[in-house]
Automatic annotation (TrEMBL), chain A:
The chain crosses the membrane at residues 6-26, 33-53, 59-81, 93-114, 139-158, 187-209, 265-284. GO terms for cellular component: plasma membrane. It is a multi-pass membrane protein. GO terms for biological process: D-alanine transmembrane transport; L-alanine transport; L-isoleucine import across plasma membrane. This is Branched-chain amino acid ABC transporter permease. The keyword Cell inner membrane applies. PANTHER family: BRANCHED-CHAIN AMINO ACID TRANSPORT SYSTEM PERMEASE PROTEIN LIVH, HIGH-AFFINITY BRANCHED-CHAIN AMINO ACID TRANSPORT SYSTEM PERMEASE PROTEIN LIVH. InterPro entries: ABC_transp_permease, BCAA_transport_permease.
Automatic annotation (TrEMBL), chain B:
This is Branched-chain amino acid ABC transporter permease. The chain crosses the membrane at residues 15-36, 43-61, 73-91, 98-117, 137-155, 188-211, 223-248, 260-279. It is a multi-pass membrane protein. The keyword Electron transport does not apply. GO terms for cellular component: plasma membrane. One of its GO terms (molecular function) is branched-chain amino acid transmembrane transporter activity.
Length: 291, 307
């Protein structure tokens, strides 16, 4: 029972982590809470659904297709809605992000309708494996595997490549990096592309896992992923991974011990408690402000 | 008295009256949030939670205790403010986005609490009995909206308001000047939540049915958009922003299914072209004086930095 719930929790949590990474990277560089990120996740799920049910590709190509589409979408959103606001108050950018979020979700409502869509039955053949006394579906293993792979790829890009180095420099000090000859606009676009691609992958995985894709799935998933990012310490990439896993696992255990009607409150209660004890999140760094 | 007002309201188009009442309630809520976000600079994403606490408290007071509407609203406001102060004490130590997400998390917890709360019928929602008053509820709404404008205008220029603005501009400098950060932040939070509670009470009695799901994240966002769109920290701006956004869904009704699409795009474009809000940096008093010729033409649009 324990092992079973742990695996369920990790599968859910790794998806939260994928979405949380997008929040945390964007926040790390331009200190914007990108509220449209949850909707990018939703759009990714729909693109995956279209690719699987209309174009009839297998799940891995669907994930790649959704990632590419959302990369472009993320960059376009940044270009239209955030770039002009980079120098103005952070709240204006926040409202702009909320506007994008409302726009995208009502667009999805118009295009795809209000009811949740399911994947075709043969989208991903699921077999149950028995590990100890736990039933693990191959789907869960794929979710955990794909998430782990993407996070490793991200870690490689951020730590080992030139653009990754530029990203780290920009998040350290925006103005100085610009002075050092880093093309800050390109770095920001790249960050949005990267974050959106991860969210899209998460969207397809969640869609297949729950076999439901709907226009309003982005809101709660986005809020929880954002909570995960803050829980781990916003701006910190390992923090987002840890926060996502922690939220996923505790949510699944909370439901398992009988608090299913409090499901959405569990994640946020943990968040509030952790922030009260450690105001910068688990792995966040304390920034001392000077006058 | 009540009968006269009733017949006065009967002359109005009910549809127009409803829009006006929505605007009135929005003004009360947005001005409350303006004290927290605009004046004190503490970003709250959970204003709807205090609205829901007020709505349910006020509805239960009417349903179970049968208290008259005036005392009911005051009691509701006090209850909400006390809860806000209790919650504010630990969470207002957080700053910036950590505070924002904490208020958001708190709002979700409140929503789930009411969804599981027996006295308010859980997820079925609560039917509110008629307000115990002779004066029709729409008149109450307009009255409270005007009172809110007066109250917040006074607060803004008072000693208390100046302390809040100092906290907004620079917490460390404010503290060095002898401002007790915790005390002022909690007072501002409680004042804003008092108004949210009263607004919630009005909302509950005007609609006579409330459901916990009506007070979700999107409601908080709605209220925050009104404050930011109008211009942070500006009372005329907030009133204007509330009027625009509370009536926008009605004006956009002719577009039927494109309504929310346009609303979202509108938010983006308004922010991109007026980042400080519609009235941000516009001195309304100045414009008025100039319009009546009491002041020579000068610079109407001041560069103002808002955080």
């Amino acid at each position: 029972m324990f092992l079973q719930q742990l695996i369920n929790g990790i599968a859910l949590g790794s998806v939260y982590s994928l979405i949380a990474l997008g929040y945390t990277m964007v926040y790390g560089i331009i200190t914007l809470i990108n509220f449209a990120h949850g909707e990018i996740f939703m759009v990714g799920a729909f693109i995956g659904l279209l690719l699987i049910s209309v174009v009839k590709v297998n799940i891995f190509f669907a994930i790649i297709g959704a990632m590419v589409f959302c990369m472009v979408l993320g960059v376009v959103v940044e270009l239209i809605a955030y770039r002009a606001l980079r120098k103005s108050s952070r709240l204006s950018a926040l409202i702009s992000a909320i506007g994008v979020s409302i726009f995208l979700s009502s667009l999805a409502l118009m295009v795809f309708g209000a009811d949740a869509k399911g994947f075709p039955d043969n989208a991903f053949p699921v077999t149950q494996l028995h590990i100890g006394n736990a039933d693990v579906s191959t789907l869960q293993l794929v979710i955990i595997g794909v998430s782990a792979l993407l996070m490793l790829a991200l870690e490689f890009i951020v730590q080992k490549t030139k653009i990754g180095k530029a990203m780290r420099a920009t998040s350290e000090d925006y103005n100085t990096s610009a002075l050092m000859g880093i093309n800050v606009n390109r770095v920001i676009s790249f960050t949005f592309a990267l974050g959106s691609a991860l969210a899209a992958a998460g969207g397809v995985l969640v869609g297949v896992l729950f076999n439901a894709v709907s226009f309003n799935m982005g809101l709660m998933a986005g809020l929880k992923a954002f909570a995960a990012a803050v829980l781990g310490g916003i701006g910190s990439i390992p923090g987002a991974m840890l926060g996502g896993l922690l939220l996923g696992v505790s949510e699944v255990f909370g439901v398992a011990i009988g608090y299913s009607s409090y499901r959405d409150a569990i994640a946020f209660s943990i968040l509030v408690l952790v922030l009260l004890l450690k105001p910068t999140g688990l792995l966040g760094q304390k920034i001392t402000k000077k006058v | 008295m009540g009968a006269i007002l009733q017949s006065f309201l009967a002359g109005f188009d009910p549809y127009l009256l409803q829009i006006l009442v929505n605007i009135g309630i929005a003004i009360v809520l947005a001005l409350g949030l303006n004290v927290i976000v605009g004046l004190t600079g503490q970003l709250s994403l959970g204003h709807a939670a205090f609205m829901s606490i007020g709505a349910f408290a006020s509805a239960l007071i009417t349903n179970k205790l049968g208290l008259a509407f005036g005392p009911n609203l005051i009691l509701t406001g006090v209850i909400t403010a006390v809860i806000a102060a209790i919650i504010g004490f630990p969470i207002l130590r957080l700053t910036g986005d950590y505070l924002a997400i904490c208020t958001l998390g708190f709002a979700e917890i409140v929503k789930v609490f009411f969804l599981n709360f027996e006295p308010s019928n859980k997820a079925l929602g609560l039917t509110v009995q008629n307000a115990k008053t002779d004066i029709p509820v729409p008149i109450w709404v307009f009255l409270v909206a005007v009172l809110s404008v007066v109250l917040v205008s006074f607060v803004q220029t008072s000693r208390f308001g100046r302390a809040l603005k100092a906290i907004r501009e620079d917490e460390i400098a404010a503290e060095a000047m002898g401002i007790n950060l915790t005390r002022y932040k909690i007072q501002a939070f409680a004042l804003g939540s008092f108004m949210a509670g009263v607004g919630g009470g009005l909302y509950a009695h005007f609609l006579s049915y409330i459901n916990p799901s009506d007070f979700g994240f999107l409601k908080s966002v709605d209220i925050l958009s009104m404050v930011v769109l109008g211009g942070l920290g500006s009372v005329p701006g907030t009133v204007f922003g509330s009027a625009v956004l509370a009536s926008a869904p009605e004006f956009l009704r002719f577009m039927s299914q494109y309504r929310m699409l346009v609303y979202g795009a509108l938010l983006v474009f308004l922010m991109v072209f007026r980042p400080n809000g519609l009235m941000g940096g516009v001195n309304v008093m100045d414009l008025l004086l100039r319009a009546v010729g009491k002041k020579p033409a000068g610079v109407a649009f001041k560069e103002k930095s808002t955080t």
